[in-house]
Amino acid sequence: MIKPTIKVCGLTKLNQIQELVDLKIDFLGFIFYEKSPRYVLNHLSLEQISETNHPGKVGVFVNEDLEKIVEISGKAKLNFIQLHGDETEDFISELRQRLNREIKIIKVIRIGNQTSDELQKTINQQPTTINYLLFDTDSKAFGGTGNAFDWNVLNDIEIPIPYFLSGGISLENFNQLTTINHQPIALDINSKFEIEAGNKDLEKVKEFISLIEK
Ligand SMILES: O=C(O)c1ccccc1NCC(=O)[C@H](O)[C@H](O)COP(=O)(O)O
């Protein structure tokens, strides 16, 4: 398995963010979705996020107003926008035009009980302006459920661009990732590495890093 990068998502604490920066975690995920128990603006200001000096700051949005995404991305100095809802092709194209050119777009595809043909169709319909896909488990909460989907479905489809894998990744199921033919460029970890929502268990994160580096 080629060594993937790591995204730790759902950060809310400055001291933990600093420790993750020191650990050279590749992506730091901040959730800008009010209904999430990890809604970052309940804990940190946009200024505090902007002062975090890291090239992989990802803002996670769910069916958010376009102007608000543009405003937050500027004020928080985000490097990536993760669209985790049902954003349309037109919305994404307009967002691309409005965002700073340096900011990359990650489009999430939530995997539920679609057939592989349906999934392929969804992937093929994505605008060419997106930079990455991210596969997560479908749920009413949109994300952060700790549930993994059947990763074998990824072997039945063609994934045209680099992708992040998420949804219930844990220390326990990490070894099953080897069954995926087209490997993700990044593993997105979240609720399986928490003491409570938004409060990360950094010892577990360190263990995960050492597993990946083996
Ligand atoms: O984490 C959340 O609370 C969340 C809520 C709504 C939309 C997205 C959310 N998280 C985004 C992520 O990228 C998570 O890392 C991803 O859903 C996987 O989470 P988990 O299944 O807990 O590992």
Automatic annotation (TrEMBL):
Pathway: Amino-acid biosynthesis; L-tryptophan biosynthesis; L-tryptophan from chorismate: step 3/5. Gene3D superfamilies: Aldolase class I (3.20.20.70). The keyword Cytoplasm does not apply. GO terms for molecular function: isomerase activity. Coiled coil: none annotated. Its EC number is 5.3.1.24. Residues 7-209 form the N-(5'phosphoribosyl) anthranilate isomerase (PRAI) domain. HAMAP family: PRAI. This is N-(5'-phosphoribosyl)anthranilate isomerase. It comes from Epilithonimonas pallida. The lineage of its organism: Bacteria, Pseudomonadati, Bacteroidota, Flavobacteriia, Flavobacteriales. The gene is trpF.
